[in-house]
Amino acid sequence: MGACTACMTRFISITSGKGGVGKTSIAVNLAVQLAQRGKRVCLIDADWGLANVNVMLRLQPQHTLEDLITSGLSLDDVLLRNIHGVDILPGSSGSERMTALAPDQLGRLANALQGLDRYDFVLIDSSSGIARNVLALSLASPEVLMVITPEPTSMTDAYAMLKLMHAEAYQGRVHIVVNHARNHTVGRHTYDKFREVVDFYLQRKLPLLGLVQEDERMQKAVLAQQALCNRNPESPAARDIGSLAGQLLLERNGVETVGSDTFWQRYLATAGVEEVVVSAEQERTELEQQIESLTAQVDALITEVTHLRQRSDNTSNRSVVPMDRGRRSLRSCCPERWIAELASGYEIFSVAGNSFPVYQLERPDGEMIQFACHGADDAYEAPGSQSTSS
């Protein structure tokens, strides 16, 4: 898929108040239908801890959204390219960490996802429920597809979510999709009941994007881990989802399109992250600077260790005065007892079976020197208690 630099992107959050309404099935097949119509599409599996897109399409991604946060990978490192014509950003499954993201982690995730301007459509398959980070995806999206079914619990939970969005003064466009309708008549009746309640209590008009009939072939496609519109493109549910895609394309006029940076800034604001983390480029620069600093410190430590090893191995630099080289004259002016008193410490060395102390003295210029007097008949007394072992 090539980059789309001249156009803006339509961000559409696909959500529901209740789980089990077929939201992910619609998201996957709608993405494929839009791609078949020549659109550049990215599908984000934003069910943070219980990703289903991977399972539905039999995908085994090497990396997931979690790696954008924990491993510092880029968007291109994680994207799965051209899956039935769609680029997929896989979510994490069974990750407790992703279900309770801290503000700084949400900021890091948002920064990593600011490269989505290449697409015509970004479809976000969000989690069910009304958690703050889930609700924030809908609030940040200019368009929301609210999936409901004829079940009363589905309509009740969807209404609760719309009520929260209304309280947040959501100004985007909400479309209703009725799934699992026994037929179009039942689906239309379900929509009418839901629309009347929302209109009466929230004073909000909700257009119907379309109906998706109950279709056993959809269940078989899910079990086979395939997209229905590829497996059975002529089935009733596949045709209905194709109609949803066509309706979205017809309604492009008047629909807000935004850059990915704007979308994620909205998301951070509505998710309660007060301060947007630095851009990905700035974050990368800071990380490189930290690595350079650590590298310099490691190099300095290696140099110091090498120098200490050389000093330890190089015994030829010690000032050793044997008995046959002026011991008498040395003792007359500089007894070993005096050296011991002036030394800051000493070590015991052995040469040819003879042990003797090597004293450490500091020169006036601060340089440390080592000094020893020894011989075969050396009988100097041991250093006094004022000498300290080094």
Question: In terms of topology, how is this protein built?
Answer:
Blueprint: E1 10-15, H1 23-36, E2 41-46, H2 53-56, H3 65-70, H4 75-78, E3 80-83, E4 86-89, H5 103-112, E5 121-126, H6 132-140, E6 143-148, H7 152-167, E7 173-181, H8 184-202, E8 208-213, H9 216-223, H10 228-231, H11 236-250, H12 260-270, H13 280-313, E9 319-321, H14 327-333, H15 336-342, E10 345-351, E11 354-362, E12 368-373
Parallel strand pairs: 1-5, 1-6, 2-4, 2-5, 6-7, 7-8, 9-12
Antiparallel strand pairs: 3-4, 10-11, 11-12
Account of the protein in words:
With 390 residues, this protein is an alpha/beta fold. The protein has 3 domains: 10-277, Rossmann fold (3-Layer(aba) Sandwich); 280-313; 319-373, no CATH class. The protein contains 15 helices and 12 strands. The protein has an 8-stranded mixed beta sheet with strand order 3-4-2-5-1-6-7-8, with helices on both faces. Helix 1 crosses helix 11 (236-250), helix 6 packs antiparallel against helix 12 and helix 7 (152-167) runs parallel beside helix 8. Mean pLDDT is 81; it is low at 1-6, 315-333 and 375-390.
Briefly note the CATH topology name of the largest domain. Rossmann fold
> What's the overall average pLDDT, rounded?
81
Question: How many strands, what sense, and barrel or not for the largest sheet?
Answer: 8 strands, mixed
Q: Uncertain segments of ≥5 residues (pLDDT<50)?
A: 1-6, 315-333, 375-390
Computed structural class: alpha/beta
Helix content: 40-55%
Q: Over the alpha carbons, how many angstroms does the gyration radius reach? A: 37 Å
CATH superfamily of the largest domain: P-loop containing nucleotide triphosphate hydrolases
Oligomer: single chain
The rough form would be described as: elongated
CATH architecture of the largest domain: 3-Layer(aba) Sandwich
CATH class call of the largest domain: Alpha Beta
Spatial strand order of the main sheet: 3-4-2-5-1-6-7-8
Give the number of domains: 3
Strand content: 15-25%
What order do the SSEs take from the amino end to the carboxyl end, as H and E?
A: EHEHHHEEHEHEHEHEHHHHHEHHEEE
Number of helices: 15
Distance between the termini: 69 Å
Total strand count, please? 12
